[in-house]
Design brief:
The protein has 233 residues and is an alpha/beta fold. It contains ten helices and ten strands. It has a single domain, classed as 3-Layer(aba) Sandwich (Rossmann fold), CATH 3.40.50.300. Helix 3 runs parallel beside helix 6.
Length: 233
């Protein structure tokens, strides 16, 4: 579904990606893992067109998308849950959801606010609360729901559970398992290796702007040296 090959991205004269390559197949959960500052968020921003890549290829469902504007990438069917959530603070939770509602792919069973509330019952209780009055966990649920309202074929989550309480983290992981069971493709960045290993089919470990290891959950958990070397766990 998504193939990234040889991506090089710069911020001015400073190079952040040095030949980034990764793959997400239809219906699978894939990860980007690694220490802070290794290029994971830059990779996501390059895919979405937020930070244009200087060279390399990005293909989504066989179509080249490198160089497209972020809104065009979103219309192709990629939804982003950004780092820091970035909900609209002066809109209610419900308004945040309906503000992004679209079905560019003309899916037969599109996401609605009620479907999001079914996925996150706690958010339903806060539907009338302003975005800036929600807790961090509620904002993350809202950010996931807002991305789902664009009816993506691929959902990307940047730091899916960062800074969240354990109970909220569990709810986010359960929601991702439910989305996977529905056939949604997911690319997730997070630091919780055991949780990622439970739901992901493929892992990419990033070091200094490129992928240095790719493998299954079983292979990842069996290699303690790999985790110590690249993730500091």
């Amino acid at each position: 579904m998504l193939t990234v090959s040889g991506l090089k991205t710069f911020y001015g004269n400073s190079q952040a990606l040095f030949g980034m390559s990764l793959e997400v197949k239809a219906g699978e959960v894939a990860t980007l893992m690694g220490r802070n500052g290794m290029g994971k968020t830059t990779t996501v921003h390059s895919i979405m067109g937020i930070v244009p890549a200087n060279s390399g290829d990005i293909h989504f469902e066989g179509e080249a998308i490198r160089g497209l504007a972020p809104y065009s990438v979103a219309r192709k069917g990629i939804g982003l849950v950004p780092e820091g959530r970035q909900v609209f603070p002066n809109l209610t939770a419900h308004e945040n959801l309906v503000a992004t509602a679209a079905n560019w792919g003309k899916l037969s069973n599109p996401w609605t606010a009620e479907r999001v509330y079914d996925l996150f019952p706690g958010l339903a209780e806060r539907r009338s609360s302003m975005g800036n009055l929600l807790s961090g966990g509620e904002q993350q649920m809202l950010a996931v729901g807002r991305a789902l309202m664009t009816n993506p074929k691929l959902l990307i989550l940047d730091e899916a559970t960062e800074g969240l309480a354990p109970l909220i983290r569990d709810e986010i992981w359960k929601s991702l398992e439910a989305l996977k069971s529905e056939g949604l493709s997911i690319l997730v960045i997070d630091k919780n290796v055991k949780d990622l290993a439970r739901i992901a089919d493929r892992h990419h470990i990033v070091e200094k702007g490129k992928v240095v290891w790719t493998g299954s959950s079983a292979a990842l958990l069996a290699n303690e040296d790999l985790m110590h070397r690249y993730m500091g766990v």
